[in-house]
């Protein structure tokens, strides 16, 4: 076919905007399109698996005490009034958070100097030891010491992702987040972060079931575990099992988890942007290491300050819900609660973990691929007011189905009650997605790579600051509302709904300042 015939047979419409060299232009366009879409970085499966194993330790040691913490405080005979148990539970919860507040930023800075691995392993070993101390405690003072040194607090990350273990030895949550940020990039984080996020809900399924099943083992299983030691220390066994998980986690992490701090990697050199070429040889000028920014300079970055402020609100609201939910389940029905046993509280928290795992496994990756993280964060924050508003409805269901003669709930009431609990926990876990998204936003908006650890440390510091007083404040508010029947015993509800709406408002600053990763 001649060129003339080729042109004659071409049915394409041309105008003055059509390129003269079609083939060349189309080739360039194709190359441009290929260049615009970066190739996804292979997922570091080994490193991610090791990090998930290390992360799994924290929710197990944290959530195993939730089913029995109020019963523990009651066994210490601190008060004869059951409505005041929440005051002491809140005091214990606040103690570890104050210790974490004092340590988390310093652990993050230390990891930028000596490496991530030593800080993570030291924290987990300390956590194992202090968990044993908690199980052997026989007084409020010894409980507070154990919690201050190690603690087990985190926000069910999702919370709750995100979440962090409280106490002096557990300020390494920011370091673990930094490791995840250093082994991933923007092309594979939508896969890596949901997988990492699975560690918390899986651990929060195991922990409550373990705590509810193995507290008071001598009474529950007298034929197998009827030892005098377990009668004297009825909460030692779940703490011992949790500590065993911690030792296994640190052992596997020591073997498989590699150092990710760039300055501590061995045998890995990178080409400096200042490299110059001369013929076939490449002369690489020594790369000047980036320096981390100071706290004042980090706070002057709008998105970092917005993440810190909103992280404070998120942590306060999320921690308050965790504390209130357990108190609500433990309180008598006539006092506005559900009168649950330790085992029933454990089952409900296990349901929460299962819901969280389903969210991470089924929809988290889709959300990160489809929506901008800042928009996801704001939506999650908007759910918190409704999580609190559902709780009184559960009490109404319990009241309606309560048999006054036997003091037991009817079958129908029990069924509706567990459906309601599943619904409120679904709302909570959806809201707690904000913890994981906050970690992504911090990674994407850190001023430079050298400041990643400190940026995570600063955001986590504000979260810990909220946790340092949230348990005490909300438990005291809960107890006071019931004791004096303020607003029908629901003053705590009104205040927490108002605080939740305030948190929803502060989150909007993140959407205004964040770097967009999805158009």
- In N-to-C order, the SSE pattern is HHHHHHHHHHHHHHHEEHHHHHHHHHH
Gyration radius from CA atoms, angstroms: 27 Å
Stretches with pLDDT under 50, minimum 5 residues: 20-28, 30-35, 151-167, 267-288
Category by helix and strand content: mainly alpha
Largest sheet: 2 strands, antiparallel
Estimated share of beta-strand residues: under 5%
Shape: globular
Helix percentage: 55-70%
Task: Compute the separation of the termini in Å.
Answer: 46 Å
**Widest β-sheet, arrangement of strands:** 1-2
Number of helices: 25
Mean pLDDT: 79
Instruction: Give a count of the beta strands, DSSP E runs of length 2 or more.
Output: 2
InterPro entries: MFS, MFS_dom, MFS_trans_sf
Biased composition (Polar residues): 269-284
Protein name: Major facilitator superfamily domain-containing protein
Organism: Suillus discolor
List keywords for this structure.
single chain; 519 residues; mainly alpha; 25 helices; 2 strands; transport
Condensed summary:
This protein is mostly helical and 519 residues long.
Describe the structure.
Residues 269-284 have a biased composition (Polar residues). One of its GO terms (cellular component) is membrane. InterPro entries: MFS, MFS_dom, MFS_trans_sf. This is Major facilitator superfamily domain-containing protein. The chain crosses the membrane at residues 119-140, 160-181, 193-215, 235-257, 306-333, 345-369, 376-395, 415-437, 458-478, 484-504. With 519 residues, the chain is mainly α. It has 25 helices and 2 strands. Strands 1-2 form a two-stranded antiparallel ribbon. Helix 9 packs across helix 23 and helix 17 (302-330) packs parallel to helix 20 (384-400). The longest helix is centred in the last third of the chain and has 32 residues, at 452-483. Mean pLDDT is 79; it is low at 20-28, 30-35, 151-167 and 267-288.
């Amino acid at each position: 076919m001649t060129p003339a015939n080729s042109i004659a047979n071409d049915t394409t419409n041309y105008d003055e905007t059509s390129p003269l060299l079609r083939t060349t232009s189309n080739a360039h366009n194709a190359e441009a399109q290929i260049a615009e879409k970066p190739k996804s970085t292979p997922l570091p499966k080994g490193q991610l698996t090791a990090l998930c194993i290390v992360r799994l330790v924290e929710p197990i040691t944290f959530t195993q005490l939730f089913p029995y913490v109020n019963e523990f405080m009651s066994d210490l005979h601190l008060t004869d009034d059951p409505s005041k148990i929440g005051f002491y539970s809140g005091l214990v919860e606040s103690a570890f958070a104050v210790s974490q507040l004092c340590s988390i930023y310093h652990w993050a800075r230390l990891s930028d100097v000596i490496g991530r691995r030593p800080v993570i392993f030291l924290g987990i070993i300390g956590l194992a030891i202090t968990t044993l101390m908690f199980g052997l405690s026989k007084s409020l003072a010894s409980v507070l010491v154990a919690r201050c040194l190690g603690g087990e607090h985190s926000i069910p990350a999702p919370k709750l992702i995100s979440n962090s273990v409280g106490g002096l030895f557990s300020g390494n949550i920011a370091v673990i987040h930094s490791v995840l940020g250093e082994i991933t990039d923007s092309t594979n984080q939508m896969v890596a972060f949901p997988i990492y996020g699975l560690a918390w809900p899986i651990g929060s399924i195991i922990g409550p079931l373990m705590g509810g099943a193995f507290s008071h083992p001598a009474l529950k299983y007298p034929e197998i575990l009827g030892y005098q030691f377990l009668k004297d220390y009825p909460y030692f066994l779940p703490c011992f099992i949790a500590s065993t998980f911690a030792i296994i986690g640190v052992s596997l992490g020591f073997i498989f988890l590699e150092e990710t701090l760039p300055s501590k990697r061995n045998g890995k050199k990178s080409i400096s942007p200042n490299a110059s070429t001369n013929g076939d040889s490449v002369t690489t000028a020594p790369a000047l290491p980036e320096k981390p920014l100071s706290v004042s300079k980090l706070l002057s970055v709008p998105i970092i300050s917005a993440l810190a402020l909103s992280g404070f609100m998120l942590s306060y609201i999320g921690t308050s819900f965790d504390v209130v939910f357990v108190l609500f389940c433990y309180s008598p029905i006539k006092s506005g609660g559900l009168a649950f046993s330790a085992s029933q509280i454990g089952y409900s928290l296990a349901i929460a973990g299962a819901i969280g795992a389903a969210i991470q496994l089924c929809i988290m990756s889709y959300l990160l691929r489809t929506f901008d993280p800042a928009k996801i964060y704001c939506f999650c924050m908007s759910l918190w007011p409704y999580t609190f508003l559902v709780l009184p409805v559960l009490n109404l269901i319990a009241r309606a189905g309560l048999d006054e003669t036997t003091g037991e709930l009817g079958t129908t009431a029990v069924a509706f009650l567990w459906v309601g609990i599943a619904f409120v926990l679904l709302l909570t876990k959806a809201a707690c997605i904000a913890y994981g998204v906050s970690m992504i936003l911090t990674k994407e908006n850190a001023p430079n790579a050298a400041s990643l650890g400190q940026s995570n440390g600063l955001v986590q510091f504000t979260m810990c600051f909220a946790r340092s007083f949230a348990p005490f404040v909300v438990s005291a508010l809960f107890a006071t509302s019931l004791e004096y029947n303020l607003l029908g015993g629901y003053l705590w509800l009104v205040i927490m709904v108002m605080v939740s709406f305030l948190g929803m408002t502060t989150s909007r600053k993140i959407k205004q300042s964040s770097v967009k990763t999805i158009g």
